[in-house]
Every structure is written in structure tokens, then in C-alpha cells.
Specification:
Low-confidence stretches: none
Number of strands: 19
CATH class of the largest domain: Alpha Beta
Structural class: alpha+beta
CATH architecture of the largest domain: 3-Layer(aba) Sandwich
Shape: globular
CATH topology of the largest domain: Rossmann fold
Helix content: 25-40%
Number of domains: 3
Number of helices: 11
Order of helices and strands: EHEEEHEEHHEHEHEEHEEEEEEEHEEHHH
Radius of gyration: 20 Å
Mean pLDDT: 92
Largest sheet: 7 strands, mixed
Strand content: 15-25%
């Protein structure tokens, strides 16, 4: 099996990224891998679709640092291949990272992923589903019971009124974005710096204001779902609690958050089960839920991360289970000779 990992850029990859763990797991299971970036697709005059992939030597790496060094070094080769020779195209780019400097690149994965799927390659997450999730507005399509109360607007007056009706405060962030960038907690509509925050964040487009959840002081839970269900291996769920640093609103690991082990309760499983139907309908193979209390703050469908931390905490390689699931999808595709749509295969 050949798996192509689509990322924003080669130089932007790190040894701690979940994509690194997935690629290493694929190599460990005897598969070929390559990395693809937004400028690597070629749609030819005969309607064939090719891709220039950065191919690593077919060896197993014991350490993520060694793998990353090889990816960034001279041992790789650039190989042009027809997408029909790629079994799985795994879309792992973050569109928000390209939105400002390379807007043309932000949604290339979904665009060409759709063409690759039409030519027989399994594409995950499903590109049509990802096209629906280009910003946080996608989250509003899930049941109200699992969402914080939310306002989406570019009006400072609307936002002030919303803040005034939520005495415990409001979290404000851009509609388009990820990784905890420009996330602020506003305690009152009279806060002196509200105008400055509004001007800074609204420059990126629409704003989201959500009622602040006091349980957020304990951090959030990142829970992986695969094929619409919580990812579990050896009796343990692929989940961590991300605890924010002192004085910090965000619990993201790169924002100085700390990852600790967590036990998944029946209540959390019930939350996951409530969002499962839409995730399955949209062909979302691998997603990360960010849960606080009985609410989901975000659903990351593009680049959910944290598998490396889970490997360290639990000594369980969840990436291996993900690659095994892809093997099964390839077998199902071949058995049905293209009769099953990519969106269905993505979550079987």
C-alpha cells in the first residue's frame, strides 16, 4: 500500500507532529509513504492526475527525530506518480496556516483530493466533507446540546450585547483559524481593551463569541474519533487532558499547555456518540474533539494532533491502529471494485 500525506510544507513539519507518527506507523507495517504539498499536483491534458511526492527510503525508524531528519535531508527523492498508484491520500494540512500568505494553497488538498477520489484513490478525510468545514461555522451544524451558546458576527454592538448577557464571561476568537491563535476571554462589555481586541481579531473576518465554561480552568479533553467512534486500543482511549498554563485561556500544547492522562467517562462517550451521525455522513475518518464539561469547544477535522503525547503517556501506538484501518479500507475498495463512494469508505 502506498500512502501520500498531504501537508502544508515539508519544512513546516516537526518530529512531534501526529503526521510523523502516522508515517512511521505506515513504514513499520511495511507500506510505502510519500509527502505531498500544495504545489505538487498536475492535471494533464489527457485528464490524468499526477502528483510529485517526496519519497523516503523504505526503512523503519526507531525515533521520530531520525525520521524527521531523513524527511528534511538529502535521502528523499522526488517521484512523479499517477494518483492511481496512490492507495490513500491522507489530507493533513491546516488551511488556516496558508490563508494569509498563500490563499491559493489553503484548500488545494480538498480540491485535488476530490479529483483523486474520482480516480480511485481513497482520500481521508473525505474532500467534500472537508469543503463543508472550511471554518468554525461547520461546528454549528452539530446538535445544540453539545455546543456552547454562540454568537457569530462582525458587529461590536452585537458582541457587547452578547457579553452583557453572560456574566461568567465570553471567549472570543476568529471564525477562521486554529491552534489557539487570537483567542481571548472577555469578562465584561466594559473592559478597556475590548475595542483593541475586536479591531485586531475582526481583521481576520467574522468573530465567534461563546459563553465561557468555568470547567475550562481544568483544561479540555482532546478525544480522537476514528470512523465516527472513539479510537480505542488495548483498553485505552486515544485521549488526553490539556491543562492551560497559569493565567492562560488556551490549553493548546504549543501555547504552554500541559498534557496529562485522562479517563473517559460514559458522559464523554455520550457526547461523542451525539456527533457521530454527522461525522459519518460527511466522511470524517479521523477527527479530534475538544471537550470541556459537557460541551464540545471545537471539532478538528483537518489536523487533529496529540498522538505523540498519547504514545508517551500510555505507551500505546494509536497511529498503528489508524494505519490498520486504512488497510481495511483499501481491501474494501478493491473487493467492491469502486462501487462504494469515497465518503462511505472514509468512515466504514
Amino acid at each position: 500500500m502506498r500512502i501520500a500525506f498531504f501537508v502544508n510544507s515539508i519544512e513546516g513539519e516537526t518530529s512531534t507532529y501526529t503526521t510523523t507518527g502516522l508515517a512511521m506507523a505506515a513504514l513499520g507495517r511495511g507500506h510505502e509513504i510519500c509527502y505531498v504539498t500544495p504545489g505538487d499536483f498536475v492535471l494533464r491534458a489527457d485528464d490524468s492526475l499526477s502528483v510529485r511526492g517526496r519519497v523516503l527510503p523504505g526503512k523503519r525508524y526507531k525515533k521520530a527525530e531520525s525520521f524527521h531528519a531523513a524527511l528534511q535531508g538529502d535521502d528523499t527523492a522526488i517521484e512523479t506518480m499517477d494518483t492511481s498508484d496512490v492507495d490513500v491520500l491522507f489530507l493533513r494540512n491546516d488551511p488556516s496556516l496558508d490563508a494569509d500568505d498563500r490563499p491559493w494553497a489553503a484548500h488545494v488538498g480538498a480540491m485535488f483530493g476530490r479529483l483523486a477520489a474520482a480516480r480511485g484513490t481513497i482520500v481521508v478525510n473525505d474532500p467534500d466533507g472537508l469543503s463543508l468545514a472550511q471554518n468554525k461555522l461547520y461546528f454549528q451544524g452539530f446538535p445544540r446540546a453539545v455546543r456552547p451558546e454562540t454568537l457569530i458576527s462582525k458587529s461590536i454592538d452585537e458582541i457587547r450585547t452578547f457579553i452583557d448577557t453572560h456574566k461568567e464571561g465570553v471567549i472570543m476568537k476568529p471564525l477562521q483559524g486554529s491552534g489557539g491563535k487570537n483567542v481571548f476571554k472577555i469578562g465584561s462589555p466594559d473592559e478597556a481593551n475590548l475595542n483593541q481586541i475586536f479591531e485586531a481579531v475582526s481583521g481576520e473576518g467574522y468573530l465567534i463569541a461563546q459563553n465561557y465554561l468555568p470547567a475550562a480552568t481544568e483544561g479540555d479533553i482532546r478525544l480522537f474519533l476514528m470512523n465516527g467512534r472513539p479510537l480505542e486500543r488495548d483498553g485505552k482511549y486515544a485521549a488526553i487532558r490539556r491543562v492551560p498554563a497559569k493565567g492562560e485561556v488556551r490549553s493548546n500544547i504549543h501555547a504552554a499547555g500541559t498534557a496529562v492522562s485522562v479517563e473517559i467517562t460514559p458522559e464523554i462517550l455520550a457526547i461523542a456518540d451525539m456527533v457521530r451521525p454527522k461525522l459519518v455522513e460527511d466522511g470524517m475518518f479521523l477527527v479530534g474533539l475538544d471537550i470541556v464539561g459537557d460541551k464540545i469547544l471545537e471539532i478538528n477535522v483537518f489536523t487533529p494532533g496529540g498522538l505523540n503525547v498519547m504514545l508517551d503517556l500510555y505507551d500505546i501506538d494509536f497511529a498503528d491502529s489508524i494505519i490498520a484501518a486504512l488497510e481495511q479500507k483499501v481491501a474494501q475498495r478493491d473487493a467492491y471494485a469502486g462501487a462504494i463512494t469515497n465518503r462511505t469508505l472514509a468512515t466504514l
